[in-house]
From TrEMBL:
Record-linked InterPro entries: AAA+_ATPase, ABC_transporter-like_ATP-bd, ABC_transporter-like_CS, P-loop_NTPase
Family from the record: Belongs to the ABC transporter superfamily.
ABC transporter domain segment(s): 5-233
UniProt keyword terms in alphabetical order: ATP-binding, Nucleotide-binding, Transport
GO molecular function, one term: ATP binding
Organism: Paenibacillus phyllosphaerae
UniProt name for this protein: ABC-2 type transport system ATP-binding protein
Amino acid sequence: MEPVMEIRQVTKRYPGGRGIADISLSVNKGEVWGLFGPNGAGKTTLLKILTGLSLPDAGRVSLFGHDIAQQFAAAMSKVSCLIETADAYGYMSASRNLKLAARFYPALPKGRIDEVLELVGLAEYREEKVSRYSLGMKQRLAIAAALLAKPELIILDEPTNGLDIEGIVWLRGLIARLAKEEGTTFLISSHGIHEMEQVCTHACMMSAGSVIGQGSLAQLTGGGMTLEAAYLSAIQHQEKGASIVHA
């Protein structure tokens, strides 16, 4: 089976030495990958490269077998993403915002907008101006936009921002259901190890721009440790010049 996402030795450096170095990762259909690490670990830099918002200095990224640098449209045709902020036009309703987004998908089935608004719990507020939404409601609207075209790969950067406990539980359930029932693949960047550990099937742990451990949760947490404990163990390995990588 060809990986949905293939990252090979990707490097991106900014002035001052920040960035990422020699990142490799392979993601298969239906897997839910958590991308974990502290601020400055390089998570958002990697996500921007994966979505074409930034170019790497070296390395290669392919999505669904298409090189993102050479076949961008084909590579991104089955991908949806939410990076950094949940942007929407505040003077418009949720329904109107999604209608604007739907223009990019001419083959979108009739009724899909109502379907995703129901899915994220905003159907009751579909005609309300987004400027009146809470931060959590805006985040739900952004997730609705990401789901609009039924993508096969969804990339989410801190998707629990602004969500209360009920919203976080709802999001975990939505991700698990889409992965299991529709084979949707997820790459999720998050600080919330405890929150995402309950839904992720795999994890890629980063620190100081490098991968310090990756593999299935069962492999990384073997012996009954938590993912947080596995991360701290990986930090110790990094200090000794090693990383924890499972095939």
